[in-house]
Amino acid sequence: MKKLVILGAGAGGTMMANHLVKKLNKKEWSITVIDQERKHYYQAGFLFIPFGSYTAKNVTKQIAQYLPKGIEHLNIRVDLIKPEENKLIFSDGKEFEYDILIAATGCRIIPSEVEGLDGIGWRKDIFDFYTVEGATALAEKLNGWEGGNLVVHLAEMPIKCPVAPLEFVFLVDWFLTKRGKRENTKLTYVTPLSGAFTKEKTSEILGHMLTDKNIEIVADFAVEKVDPEAKVLHSYDEKTVPYDLLVSIPTNMGDELYEKSGMGDDLNFIPTEKHTLKAKNYENIFVIGDASDLPASKAGSVAHAQSEVLTENILRHIKGEELLQDFDGHANCFIESGFGQGFLIDFNYDVPPVQGTFPVPGIGPFSLLKETRMNHMGKLIMKWMYWNIILKGVKIPFMTSKMSLKGKKL
């Protein structure tokens, strides 16, 4: 019996387990999913917790609920991968062999990468919302907010859900307006990018929105350190931004396991072939989602698109066939803009976000690169779809692995 191992039971790992259990010959292959955690989070929902729209309970399930029958689930930490020997070393010292390994460990925030960020101010007047604990603590802080300098700070790219920092600053503008505290608050968005976002047209549109909402943008800010006593952000070129409340998106990194195993880059992401999803340096290791170094967005929609391509390539690998070059970097992301409105962007490696309709050409109901009520509703619907359709590997006609150009104004 040959062994296929999925390392990580987040979005990508769970989707792959659900796809492959239907495709692999059960007499020839076993599937094992390994994750040290027991809880599965709808991470896109963390954004709404600081504003009271969701609670931790709304975004948390048990991992075991979403893994299919017919697979083995191990709740243990992997301390080391020996790719040359096709072995995993568990935290208890035991070894586990594999024939195919799928890395689906995601990425995590590392606040210690910025001097002072996780010091005396952490979870007091410096917060994140990329963890359920951080988002919950921030909700309590915002509930008592009376005014001052509120700074939203992006440390460096890449990060998971690249639009989330902008969504947060738009939502906090709405939240404070609703509570009558907006006039008492100076909102500042600090980014290492030259504009509001990584994609030029989207950056232009969202940058104008920041201006219209009286949100100051400080661009090209390469953060050196945070002084939590003086409450000041410092850049390497001696810019400073004072804050009373700092909401930071710290450096994102892959699992330290890959550093220890000699498999990762400087940020512990696995070098991955951008169209096949095979690890560049290993013939029987594949990567899905945020664990890779691909120039695609680190987002659930991307993992969903990758899962279909990767499933086919796993089957081809087993048969000794040439891998498909089918993943085109496709991502579609709803962007909350506050006051019950939202945007939708659809793009891939080569085609930037453009205007048009989605998913039905000429009909929609969603509009691309336009602020609409329907786009906001689409964002909210995604939570139900995530738990009930996406994680289970159910094919969705309008969420294709490749980007469709129909209905787009190129």
CATH superfamily of the largest domain: FAD/NAD(P)-binding domain
Shape, please?
globular
Determine Rg (CA atoms, Å): 21 Å
CATH topology of the largest domain: FAD/NAD(P)-binding domain
Helix/sheet category: alpha/beta
Number of domains: 3
Q: How many H/I helical runs?
A: 7
Unreliable parts: none
The level-1 CATH class of the largest domain: Alpha Beta
Task: Please specify the SSE layout and strand pairing.
Elements: E1 2-7, H1 11-23, E2 29-34, E3 39-41, E4 60-62, E5 72-74, E6 78-82, E7 87-90, E8 95-97, E9 100-103, E10 108-109, E11 126-127, H2 132-143, E12 148-154, H3 164-178, E13 185-190, H4 200-212, E14 215-218, E15 223-227, E16 232-235, E17 240-242, E18 245-249, E19 252-253, H5 256-260, E20 285-287, H6 300-319, E21 331-338, E22 341-347, E23 355-360, E24 364-368, H7 373-390, E25 408-409
